[in-house]
Amino acid sequence: MRYTSVLSNLLWPLATTTTEYGADCSWPIFSTNFSCDDRLGDRAAEYYDFIHKCHEYGGPKGKKACDQTEMDRLEMNARQPKAMVNYTGTGFTKIKAPQTVMDLIIQHWEANKETMTEESWPKGSIYLNYWESKTYMVAVEDRNLKGAGDKLKEQIWDAAKTTIEAWTNVEIQPTSMYGIRVYTEGAILSPHVDRLPLVSSCIINVAQDVDEPWPLEVYDRQGNAVNVTMEPGDMVLYESGSTLHGRPFPLKGRYYANIFIHFEPLTRPAGDHSALDELLPPYLIPGTAAAQNWLIENPDGWNKPSPAFPAQPSDQPEGHYAAAIGDYYRLKELAQEDPESLHRKDSNGWLPIHEAARSGHTDIVELLIQHGAEKDARTGLSDNGSSLLNMALEFHGEDHPLTAFLFSIGAQDIGYGEL
Ligand SMILES: *[C@@H]1O[C@H](CO)[C@@H](O)[C@H](O)[C@H]1NC(C)=O
Ligand SMILES: *[C@@H]1O[C@H](CO)[C@@H](O)[C@H](O)[C@H]1NC(C)=O
Ligand SMILES: *[C@@H]1O[C@H](CO)[C@@H](O)[C@H](O)[C@H]1NC(C)=O
Ligand SMILES: *[C@@H]1O[C@H](CO)[C@@H](O)[C@H](O)[C@H]1NC(C)=O
C-alpha cells in the first residue's frame, strides 16, 4: 500500500510530559488572561514586553495597529479551528522529509545562503518580534538567486504532495510556499492558525545553529500544548488551519532556517460522504462563523481554483490589490472606469504603484507611469517615505528588471524620511 513508506518514516513518539498545560499559559492563545501558575516563569511579563516593543517600534500609530492585529490573532485562534473539517487524528506529526524534497531544498540553500535578504514587516504586525530579532529570506521564487524560480517551487510542491496526501488521505492542491525563512537569536513567533487556504501543511527544518532545541509549540486535540523539536531534515506535518502553532519561547542560538509548504484538500476526508456546500471549500463546516466570513470574502465561492492569489483584504482598495497581485488587465480596466483610484493613497500612504513596486511587477509600474503616476512617487501620507527606486532596490536588488527600468527613466533613490 502506497502509504507504508511514509508511515514507516514516523518519528513522532507522541511524548507525554509531566508539565502539561493548555491555552493562555506560555502565551495568550484565546485571551490575555494568563491561566497558569509560574511553572514557566513570568510569561505575562515576557508577553507585555513583546507588546510594548511592538508599540514603540510602530511609532505614533503603532499602539493601535499592534493592538488591533493582536486582537485579530486571538479572535482567529478562537474562531477558525472550530470551523475546520479535520483530516487526521492528531492534527500534527513529525517525520523525516523525503530525500527528493530535501535534495531540492538543500541545493537551493547551499547555493544561496550567503545572499539572504532581510524580511520586511509592516508596522503593527505581531506574529514575529522583528523589532529585535530580524528574519531573513532565501526565497525559492527569487529569480535573482541561483536555480530559484517557479520551476523550483513546482518541483518542491510535487515532491511534498505525495507525503502530505498520504497523511491526510485525500487529494490536495498547492496553495502557498514560503521560505526559506531564517530566524535569528531571540525570535518569538506568536501562536496562530494559518489563514485559508493554507490547510494541509508542512514545515521542514533546513538548517540550524542553536544552543538548545527551539520548540514548535502546537496544541493537540485536547487543547494541551506540546513541544515539537526539529533537526535539519525533519518535516512536521500539520493541519495549519486548525492546529494552533507558534514558537513562544525565544530562540537560543544563531539561526534556524525553515521552509513552509501549504496545500488545500479538494474533498472531504476519505469515508465522509456527507453533502458538500456548493459554495464553500470542502474543509469548512457550513454554518460556522468562520465559514460565514469566508463567504463574505469569497462571494463567487470555491471552485477548485488553480493556485490562487491571496484574497483581497477587505480594507485594501481594488487598485492597490490589483497592483499587488500583478493583475495588469484589471488595472487597465480601472484606468478607464475610475482613473483617480490609481493615484489615491490608502490609509498607510501607499499608492497602487508602491504595491506593484514591492511585488516587483515591472509591467504594472510601467502601466501606472503611462497613466500619470510619478516616477519618484513616495510612500507616506506626507510624501516623505520611500521612493519607487528605493523600494525596488530594497525589495528586489540592483539586478531586478524593475530596478533597471526605474534607472532607465531617471528615477531617484530616496529613502524613508529623507528630504
Ligand atoms: C479575563 O478576565 C476578566 C477579568 O477577570 C474576565 O472578565 C474575562 O471574562 C476573562 N476573559 C476570558 C476570555 O476568559
Ligand atoms: C478540528 O480540530 C480543531 C483543533 O483541534 C478543533 O477545534 C475542531 O473542533 C476540530 N473540528 C471538528 C469538526 O471536530
Ligand atoms: C516547552 O519548552 C519550554 C522551553 O524549553 C518549556 O519551558 C516548557 O515546559 C515545554 N512545554 C512542554 C509542554 O513540554
Ligand atoms: C513625515 O512627515 C510627517 C508629517 O510632517 C511626520 O510626522 C513624519 O515623522 C515624517 N516621517 C518621516 C519618516 O520623516
UniProtKB/TrEMBL annotation:
SMART domains: ANK. PROSITE patterns: ANK_REP_REGION, ANK_REPEAT. Keywords: ANK repeat, Repeat, Signal. GO terms for biological process: protein K6-linked ubiquitination. Residues 1-22 form the signal peptide. The keyword DNA repair does not apply. The keyword Nucleus does not apply. It comes from the Eukaryota. Gene3D superfamilies: Ankyrin repeat-containing domain. ANK repeats lie at residues 348-380. InterPro entries: Ankyrin_rpt, Ankyrin_rpt-contain_sf. GO terms for molecular function: ubiquitin-protein transferase activity. This is Uncharacterized protein. It comes from Fistulifera solaris (Oleaginous diatom). The lineage of its organism: Eukaryota, Sar, Stramenopiles, Ochrophyta, Bacillariophyta.
